[in-house]
Design goal:
The protein is an alpha/beta fold and about 550 residues long. Among the domains are: about 240 residues, ANL, N-terminal domain (Rossmann fold), CATH 3.40.50; about 100 residues, GMP Synthetase, Chain A, domain 3. The strands form five sheets. The chain has a nine-stranded mixed sheet, sandwiched between helices. A seven-stranded mixed sheet has the order 7-6-5-3-4-8-9. A hairpin with a 2-residue loop joins β21 and β22. α2 packs across α3 and α7 packs across α9. About 50% of the residues are buried. The structure holds adenosine-5'-diphosphate (ADP). Adenosine-5'-diphosphate binds next to β14, β19 and β20.
């Protein structure tokens, strides 16, 4: 017997309509690319979203067309999220840090007819222009007064929408229709396209709003440092509108000082970003002695959350929560919200729990398998390849030429992990970064985290280096914190009290900077190239 309930499609426009009906005065504030602060409300934004939808239709955009955007977190890109998906076209968010070859690849691969871009990226877009095979029109996300002529034949966004009505009749269509797409950062091979459906993003937005996930409420003010150009700023432009959370878009200023200004002036209570962003902010607070009295919580994901960050932000009364996910998971898989009995523990007993990636959101199934595909126990000890499935997890890469899933329809994340009997996920490493030594797996993340606890270490990256006896041994690469001059011996001693013997690095090298990739994470591939012929001492 089937249920006798209405079958209404889960569309992102329903989120917008809900927000307009219930939270029309909720604020959206942007530090614009042009400079000044722009503020308006959800009610105002809905009118401009309608204008854009009408403009796109007038331009000839039809369902399924892929519209490219390479933009900072601003109200204009926010408007694109709702307008493009709302007319059943597909917003292709492009990461400007992919590098010119990959950027051209993804725009051609997605066959974008239109390319919207922030003027800060105009030189990059102009350089790409000769390589772009499908783009018919370029549109700068600005007004006529701020247009420049770097990109030939470009219109401006404000001109494009100016003469169109601010009323639109949103169409209804199948909830499995594509709404957005994003490419993985292509650290191994060409970037792969992940195509999100309305249903997937709506369902993840519901889950993200749970108290066991992002746990924001109406009255909160959220600043996404996570970019709208990569995995939809962790889906927050949708989840914030579900519950009437104010949004503050930092635009082009993502340095410690720039972020501090927006967090402070706009009384931001919740933010989200990768560890490098949080490190930059912490550094700024420590250098200046400034405080953030309004900021209560931050979601830190995309890479392991170092213990030094948890401790550092606790001094400022900011609770950092770890999340884990990936482009292929829209992107949130787990969030670490501690239950009261763990939260009440003294800091040294609590931190080991906070260093885990958290528990799965509802509908995210996780399992561990060994290298031949046998399922392993979630007993807090077995370490294996992490596979997932769920309604917001990729089924197939865009134009895939080989199967994306395992034979029994799970997605292999490429991560190695442990899951404990209470459901907590602990990411050991990416399978390709784990150090295989003497028959054991050593986590590069554990060594990096331990090194980061040393006051003289600003950044740490660990790679495995070939070893004649042990197969691989860890090399620790360090960027010193300004004003400190630690020696390799001092750091070795420091690590001996914090790591088991197999994980003690065989060598430590100091460098001026460690390469980071398109999503702000340490680029191990580059680090490996840099130390390709490295010879371990002794
Ligand atoms: P890319 O790095 O290719 O852009 P994503 O941004 O989708 O891909 O990153 C996903 C990967 O980031 C995960 O598979 C995992 O390796 C890593 N990651 C994300 N969150 C965490 C975390 N909390 N701890 C450790 N690694 C993480």
């Amino acid at each position: 017997m089937m249920g006798l309930m209405m079958d209404r499609p889960l569309l992102t426009t329903e989120i917008l309509k809900h927000a307009v009906r219930n939270y029309r005065n909720t604020e959206i504030v942007t530090r614009t690319v042009e400079g000044p602060i722009h503020r308006y409300t959800i009610g105002d934004s809905a009118k401009r979203i309608a204008k854009l939808a009408n403009a796109l239709k007038a331009m000839g955009v039809t369902p399924g067309d892929r519209i490219g955007v390479m933009g900072m977190n601003t109200y204009r890109q926010f408007e694109m999220y709702y307008a493009v998906g709302g007319i059943s076209a597909v917003l292709h968010t492009i990461n400007p840090r992919l590098g010119p070859d990959n950027a051209a690849f993804v725009i051609n691969h997605a066959e974008n007819d239109y390319l919207f871009y922030d003027t800060v990226f105009a030189p990059l877009v102009a350089a790409l222009q000769p390589k772009l095979e499908t783009v018919k029109q370029y549109i700068a996300l600005t007004d006529a007064d701020h247009a420049d002529d770097a990109v030939s034949g470009a219109l401006t966004y404000e001109e494009l929408i100016a003469d169109h009505s601010d009323i639109v009749e949103w169409p209804e269509f199948d909830e499995n229709t594509a709404v957005a797409m994003c490419y993985t950062s292509g650290t191994t091979g060409d970037p792969k396209g992940v195509v999100y459906s309305h249903r997937a993003l709506v369902l993840q937005s519901f889950a993200a709003c749970l108290p066991t996930a992002m746990s924001m409420v109406e009255g909160d003010t959220f600043l996404p440092v996570v970019p709208m150009f990569h995995v939809n700023a962790w889906n927050t432009p949708y989840s914030c509108l579900m519950i009437g959370v104010n949004q503050v878009f930092p635009g082009p200023r993502l340095d410690g000082e720039g972020l501090y200004e927006m967090l402070d002036q706009e009384k931001v209570t919740f933010s989200a970003g990768v560890p490098t962003v949080w490190l930059g902010l912490l550094d700024y607070l420590e250098k200046t002695g400034k405080k953030l009295p309004h900021l209560k919580k931050g979601l830190c994901g995309g890479a392991a959350l170092p213990e030094a960050l948890i401790r550092g932000f606790e001094k400022y009364d900011v609770e950092l929560q770890q999340g884990w996910g990936m482009t292929e998971m829209s992107p949130i898989g787990t969030v670490n919200v501690l239950p009261p009995h763990l939260k009440a523990l003294p800091i040294d007993e609590r931190i080991p729990h906070q260093l885990k990636a958290g528990r799965a959101l509802p509908f995210v199934d996780m399992r561990l398998v060994d290298s031949v595909g046998h399922i392993l126990a979630c007993d807090g000890e077995c370490e294996g390849h992490l596979q997932v499935r769920g309604p917001w997890i990729v089924k197939e890469y865009y134009k895939a030429t080989e199967p994306t899933l395992t034979a029994d329809d799970w997605f292999d994340t490429g991560d190695v992990a442990i899951i404990d009997p209470d459901g907590y996920l602990q990411i050991t490493d990416r399978a390709k970064d784990v150090i295989k030594t003497g028959g054991e797996w050593v986590s590069s993340i554990d060594i990096e985290n331990a090194a980061m606890l040393h006051e003289g270490v600003a950044q740490a990256g660990v790679i495995g280096v070939p070893h004649p006896v042990w197969q691989e041994r860890p090399l620790l690469v360090i960027v010193k914190r300004a004003g400190y001059d630690p020696t390799a011996e001092e750091i070795q001693e420091f690590l001996k009290t914090r790591l088991h013997k197999m994980a003690w690095p065989d060598a430590i090298e100091f460098v001026k900077n460690i390469p980071v990739g398109a999503t702000g994470k340490i680029l191990k591939t580059e680090l490996r190239k840099q130390f390709k012929d490295y010879e371990l001492p002794g």
